[in-house]
Amino acid sequence: MNFDYTDEQRRWRELAREFAEGEISPVAAKLDREQKFPYEIVRKMCDLGLMGLTIPEEYGGSGGDFVGYNLALEEICRADTSVGITMEAHVSLGCAPIVDFGTPEQKEHYLGEIVQGGRKLWAFGLTEPNAGTDAGGTETTAELDGGEWVINGEKKWITNGGTDITGGVTAIAKTGERENGKPELTAIIIEQEREGFTRGPGYEKTGWRASDQRQLYFRDVRVPESNTLGERGNGFRQFLRTLDAGRVAVGALSVGLAQACFEEALSRAKERRQFGRAISEFQGIQFKLADMAMEIELARGMVLKAAWLKDKGRPFGREASMAKVFASETAKRAADQAVQIWGGEGFMETSNVARYWRQVKINEIGEGTSEINRQIIARSLLREESGEEVKARMTAQ
Ligand SMILES: Cc1cc2nc3c(=O)[nH]c(=O)nc-3n(C[C@H](O)[C@H](O)[C@H](O)COP(=O)(O)OP(=O)(O)OC[C@H]3O[C@@H](n4cnc5c(N)ncnc54)[C@H](O)[C@@H]3O)c2cc1C
Fold first, then answer.
1. CATH no. for 122-234
2. 3-state secondary structure labels for all residues of 259-297
3. Are 7-120 and 236-396 the same fold in CATH?
4. pLDDT per residue as tens digits for the range 183-229
């Protein structure tokens, strides 16, 4: 057993930390207040290789592993989760499906364009007005006509869906019905400039205010059949696998935010004096700090274990859901306790902890709510695991 990071993982962590402390932390509150998308910061993150961190080098990416990516993401989110979700949605939801399921031509073309040519962002369109947790209930349709998909429908809350540097979206559409009556779902790559593809304005949000989410509309949008991501009819399997990995990353995002809450709470506890002494001298405050630190340590361990399993090619879906639920709930408790330790000042928008408190809730909702992740965990515990799965797990533990 070895808890040490590799040199490369450590390098990603340090690079992200240095960049986050130097370039993101100083402007995070302003970006949030002004609800501005941080183009300059994202451009620099592209230059540093952070936005292509897990994309193989042969396509111009950084070729980093999943542990290294999650370590870097935690550091970015310790500074700001708006920037963090921009990175996460691009890497885990935008690029990963193309890396994992794209044809060699698609990888060459789109990944090349994303990381090298245009420094573009890519989005993942699953959620719709009537298909949230029940993403299989997708109503967007795609029909073949003369060698082209004709796409109609809409997607909701799509991160990176409408920035000036968005290259396109990989959207899940219903392409038919299976013999068992279930919908056939297919992932289709839709470039930003396709006719009939339009975007709504940004939303008024409680958190992630400097990130970009849009409603996307498809009205008779035509793309070549070759824009099918991998194989037709594989959309359901593809989005489940994409979300498994995305959940680990939302776990890392939550750990970063929880760590920021802890650090703010610790420094305030040492500074603030009441009854003639620092409030950190009161046991009531010390126990809060101890609980926060313990939970963060545990959440980080869960995230990194799930990431490590993925890097080893072993089953990691259960661990991903566990890490996501525990880390997001840890962050929620940490934000709550940080405000409590800050007292009235923590309720003021002049404090960082007030912003963290607003931002933390979405972690329990995006990329699978806590309820649905608990269901996934329970189902995996209750189901008869295949011999293969048991073996893989035994080797992992
Ligand atoms: C800021 C933001 C960014 C987002 N980015 C993206 C993106 O980039 N791409 C994308 O595709 N989507 C994105 N989403 C959508 C997000 O993934 C969904 O919000 C999430 O999956 C939950 O769906 P919903 O909000 O429709 O909730 P609903 O499905 O309406 O659920 C409402 C409540 O019912 C509960 N519930 C539902 N079904 C069950 C059940 N079977 N058992 C128990 N409880 C249940 C849920 O857990 C929840 O508590 C984003 C959302 C937001 C707010």
1. 2.40.110.10
2. HHHHHHHHHHHHHCEECCEEHHHCHHHHHHHHHHHHHHH
3. no
4. 999 999 999 999 999 999 999 999 999 999 999 999 999 999 999 99
What is the CATH architecture of 236-396?
Answer: Up-down Bundle (1.20)
Closest C-alpha to ligand 1, atom 19 = 366
Spatial distance between the Cα atoms of 61 and 386, rounded to a whole number of angstroms:
35
Question: Burial level of 365, CB count in 10 A (0-12/13-18/19+)?
Answer: middle
Query: Tokens 């089953």 correspond to what residue?
Result: 315
Question: For position 386, what pLDDT does the model report?
Answer: 56
CATH topology of domain 7-120: Butyryl-Coa Dehydrogenase, subunit A; domain 1 (1.10.540)
Would you say residue 396 has pLDDT above 50? no
Q: How many CB atoms lie within 10 A of CB 138?
A: 26
User: Does residue 202 line the site of ligand 1, with CB under 6 A?
Assistant: no
> What are the residues facing 188 on neighbouring strands?
171, 228
Q: How far is the CA of 127 from the centre of ligand 1 (A)?
A: 8
Q: How far is the CA of 134 from the centre of ligand 1 (A)?
A: 8
Q: Is the CB of 124 under 6 A from ligand 1?
A: yes
Query: What distances in angstroms separate CA 346 from CA 221, 234, 273, 285, 350, one per listed residue?
Result: 48, 48, 15, 15, 8
Domain ranges (residues) in the chain = 7-120, 122-234, 236-396
Buried b (16+ CB within 10 A) or exposed e, 200-222: eebeebebbbbbbbbbbebeebb
Query: Which of 37, 90, 127, 163, when mutated, tests ligand 1's pocket best, judged by the most ligand atoms within 8 Å of its CB?
Result: 127
Which of 23, 75, 113, 367 is catalytic? The answer is: 367
- In this predicted structure, the answer to whether residue 116 has a pLDDT above a threshold of 70 is no
| Ligand 1 centroid to residue 364 C-alpha, Å | 9
Helix (H, G, I), strand (E, B) or coil at 311: helix
Which pLDDT score is estimated for 392? 54
